[in-house]
Amino acid sequence: MTDLAEEVAFSLIGHHDVLAFIESELKKPSHAYLFVGPTGTGKATVAREFARLLLCPEHGVHDEACSSCRRIGTGNHPDLVIVEPEGRTSLGADTARWVVGQAVLTPVESDRRLFLIEEAGLMTDQAANALLKTLEEPSAAVVFLLVAESEEDFPPTVASRCRIIRVGRVPEDDLTAALMQRGIEEEKARVLALVSGGRPGLALQLAGQPQIAELRQAWLSVPSRLSARPGDSITMAEEMLARIDPLATEVASSQPTADQRDRAKRRASQSLLAGGLEIMASFYLDSASLQLGGPIRNTDVPLPELTRSSPARAVAASHQVLDAIVDLAGNLRPVPVLAALFSSLAGD
Model pTM? Predict the structure, then answer.
């Protein structure tokens, strides 16, 4: 591992290939980077780390944090401009035009000026168009760091002018090991890795919540509780969302403003719901694997529960669950999606 990777390995969980890439970019950075990946995977953390290393005179390789690195950590560096949305749901043209005006200013103490937009996916088309000219004709002293779920959140003209850095989810074993390094007991660390769906940021935020194990068990119990009676699927959908709500609220509680808390809660809810459905899908995959002589992931589930469906039906059910995750990623309302899923599985 390089000096840089050793420097940041503890603060960032996983993403070793991404760290290697940003190390290679330090000497001659591009004018714009777009960090993309699922919520909670740490893409904003990676972007902030990149900002720290770009502005640090020694690129972060030192025994003790320098003045530049300390101020990056507190958000007080004069050459790091953190751009926030105006409200709950959008980053508009006025903000973009302000950024364009700031981008022509000379750096205060570094050789470059960085603009970090952690919720760039909220950028309106008008804002993207206002920013486009600056991206097309960049100053050598300016670097843009945009963070979003996907490059599809932007017009192609904007995304194509950025260097894309994909920050994916962390494998379960790697995330579990990293959580244990931070003093979390092994069983709890594994449950956190499962419930968070490989999202390190979410796992760390949930570490202090005692009901995490209960949430996992609730999702694993759904297949045996399914009912074809009218209305039961809606009741169960509302129940599962009610289990998620207080956790998402707690995750978002540290944000300083109401708008930021609303956005953080929405992201946490989406991640927890996706993670829960993945746990549910793993139940069906265990069912098929067990009956075909293979290994199972959820060893604490009673074996009779895993043999209620044939292997073929269990595999089909797992596909239905994963399809529901895709539907929810398209911003469909969660209650109807879950209710339809539970009703369909009950009827199989």
Answer: 0.77
CATH code: domain 3-166 is 3.40.50.300
DSSP output for 61-79: -SSS--HHHHHHHHT--TT
Report the alpha-carbon distance of residue 9 to residue 15 in Å, rounded.
Answer: 9
Distances 250 to 70, 165, 243, 255, 324 between C-alpha atoms, Å: 27, 29, 12, 10, 25
Of residues 32, 50, 19, the one with CA closest to residue 164: 32
Nearest-angstrom CA–CA distance, 201 and 187: 18
Residue 130 amino acid letter: A
Write the pLDDT tens digit of every residue in 93-114: 899 999 999 998 999 988 899 9
Task: Give the length of the chain.
Answer: 348
Domain spans in the chain, listed from the N-terminal domain onward: 3-166, 209-347
CA distance 58 to 62: 7
